[in-house]
Amino acid sequence: MKILIFTHKSDIDGMGGAVLASLAFDNIDYVLCETFNLQEEIQKYFDSKKIYDYDMIYVTDLWLEEPMLTRIAEDEKLKDKFLIFDHHESALTNGLNKYDFVNIKISDEKGKCSGTSLFYQYLKKNKLLIDRKDVYDFVELTRRYDTWEWKNIYDDEMAHNLTLLFDAVGKEGYIKLMIDKLSNKKNNFSFSELEKMLIENKKNQVKAKLEEYYKKMIIKEVLGYKAGIIFIDYEYRNDLAEYVRNKKENIDLLIMPSFDYGTISYRRIKTDFKVRQIAEYFGGRGHDYAASSPIFKDTENDVISLLLTKRYDV
């Protein structure tokens, strides 16, 4: 079988889709997509006609919107070989699961779902991937980190270390490293001494950056809510949110524009606050606890002006 997978490029949940596909199939191509350019990437395959060269096409940790959803549903050659595995509340509330090939699930008996965990369940159910302890561990660590259960429920530092390793080695390096590691078929998922060293070095780097970013936080009213605003490099968004929470700041949410990635990340600070609603106002999507919206090159100055100078009315 010839497989094509589109998956999220920004975190270990997106990487997990590419890793699992590589373990399950011999002949795969993967496309690492930004949060808001999936439709554009799929369109490229339509334009070149290459999309019809594949036996199955998967999307993990991303949502597909209209008109592309209906275009695929009405394509007799594609509708039965296209599957989407996503877990974002926005995709569900916006009705993006109206076709059978779309699998959007927020939680199950295990807890909150991730793109990787949903894809893993599909591969197991269809006997496309042998169920092994090390692969299960990898999927569960990915799920725990992506849903923040590593912190809120399990206090599982190993899940956090996995994403630090991803930040240390980069996207392609991480995919290759995980494929090699899981191809060894060990009983349990573990880190090598070199990986432990990379993780420790990254921890020290992150700590220094968080302290630096925190000093630059500006507190403003955004859409009637009290927001901390910090311009950052994208990879620090989750750790910075936890850092600010630990500082007990009296704010509703953290807004983190990342011009290096073309994205504004939103993270809740107060436990009852839904940042998804703020992200959707600015054309984004996501979860109640974590969401994002796009920044386009020609609107960077507008983003700065909006966040730093203008007051909003609800």
For the largest beta-sheet, the strand count, sense and barrel status come to: 6 strands, mixed
- Number of discrete domains: 2
Spatial order of the strands forming the largest sheet: 8-9-10-11-13-12
The secondary-structure element order is EHEHEHEHEEEHHHHHHEEHEEHEEH
Calculate Rg over CA atoms.
20 Å
Report the portion of residues in β strands: 15-25%
Unreliable segments of 5+ consecutive residues = 310-314
Q: Write the CATH architecture name of the largest domain.
A: 3-Layer(aba) Sandwich
Structural write-up:
The chain is an alpha/beta fold and 314 residues long. It has 2 domains: 2-191, Rossmann fold (3-Layer(aba) Sandwich); 212-309, Diaminopimelate Epimerase, Chain A, domain 1 (Roll), CATH 3.10.310. Helix content is 44%, strand content 19%. It has 13 helices and 13 strands. The chain has helices spanning 12-24, 38-48, 68-73, 89-93, 115-125, 133-146, 149-152, 157-169, 171-183, 193-214, 237-246, 275-281, 300-309, and strands at residues 2-8, 27-33, 56-60, 82-86, 102-104, 107-108, 111-112, 218-222, 225-229, 253-258, 263-268, 285-286, 290-294. The strands form 3 sheets. It has a 6-stranded mixed sheet, with helices on both faces. Strands 2-1-3-4-5 form a 5-stranded parallel sheet, sandwiched between helices. A two-stranded antiparallel sheet has the order 6-7. The chain is globular. The model is unreliable at 310-314 (pLDDT under 50).
Write a short abstract of this structure.
This protein has 314 residues and is an alpha/beta fold. It has 13 helices and 13 strands.
